[in-house]
C-alpha cells in the first residue's frame, strides 16, 4: 500500500462503497480492489450497518442459462458490452453503470430484478474466462447469454421459444419476461444513458 497514491486509494474506497451499496459480496470487493480484507469489512459494516454475509459465491454457469435469469442476464450483458465497446468505459466503471441501468429499466417497467450485483459480476467473470458467450437468436436477432461453443446456426432464444410449462405459471413468467425482453430488443444504449443522465440531473 505504501507506494500507492492517495488518489488511487481514494478511488478504490469510493468504488468499494458504491459496490457495497449495490449489494456486492466481500469476495467481489477483495477481487476488484487492493484494499485489505480488514478495511473492506470495516467499510462494509459502516455502509450496510452489519457484517458481510459469509459463504461461497455462486459458481455455476448453469443459472445464467435457465429461462428467466437468462433473459435478465442477457439484458445486463448487452448493456455492459455496449458501454465498453461504444462508450469507451473502463471495465468496473462500465460494470457499475450497466448494473444501475439494468435496475433503472426494470423499475420503469415495474419488473423485479432477477440478477443481483454479485451474480452480475460473476457473469462478467464467466465471460472473461470464456465459459459464457453471446449468441444471436436466429429468430429475433437479439443477443443472448449461452454456454461457450453453443452451435449458433440453430440457436433460438428463450423468448422466441419459451419453455412449455402449462397454465398460470407460464403466463406469469411470460409477462415477467416481457419487459426486459422488449428492452433487449428495442432500447438502444444511448437511450439508456440519456435516461441515466436525466435521473442524475433530477437528483443533483
Ligand atoms: Zn429470439
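Q: What amino acid sequence fits the structure above?
A:
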Amino acid at each position: 500500500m505504501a507506494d500507492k497514491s492517495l488518489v488511487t486509494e481514494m478511488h478504490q474506497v469510493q468504488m468499494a462503497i458504491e459496490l457495497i451499496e449495490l449489494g456486492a459480496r466481500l469476495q467481489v470487493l477483495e477481487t476488484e480492489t487492493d484494499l485489505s480484507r480488514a478495511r473492506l469489512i470495516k467499510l462494509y459494516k459502516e455502509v450496510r450497518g452489519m457484517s458481510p454475509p459469509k459463504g461461497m459465491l455462486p459458481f455455476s454457469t448453469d443459472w445464467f442459462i435457465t429461462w428467466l435469469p437468462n433473459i435478465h442476464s442477457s439484458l445486463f450483458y448487452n448493456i455492459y458490452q455496449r458501454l465498453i465497446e461504444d462508450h469507451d468505459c473502463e471495465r468496473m466503471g462500465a460494470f457499475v453503470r450497466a448494473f444501475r441501468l439494468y435496475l433503472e429499466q426494470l423499475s420503469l417497467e415495474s419488473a423485479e430484478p432477477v440478477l443481483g450485483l454479485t451474480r452480475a459480476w460473476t457473469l462478467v467473470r464467466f465471460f472473461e474466462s470464456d465459459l459464457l458467450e453471446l449468441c444471436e437468436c436466429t429468430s429475433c436477432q437479439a443477443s443472448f447469454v449461452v454456454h461457450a461453443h453453443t452451435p449458433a446456426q440453430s440457436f433460438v432464444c428463450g423468448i422466441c421459444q419459451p419453455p412449455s410449462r402449462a397454465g398460470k405459471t407460464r403466463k406469469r413468467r411470460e409477462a415477467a419476461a416481457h419487459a426486459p425482453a422488449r428492452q433487449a430488443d428495442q432500447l438502444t444504449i444511448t437511450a439508456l444513458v440519456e435516461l441515466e443522465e436525466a435521473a442524475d440531473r433530477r437528483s443533483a
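Q: And what stands out in the fold?
A: The pocket of zinc ion is lined by residues 137, 139-140, 142, 156-157, 159-160 (CB under 6 Å).
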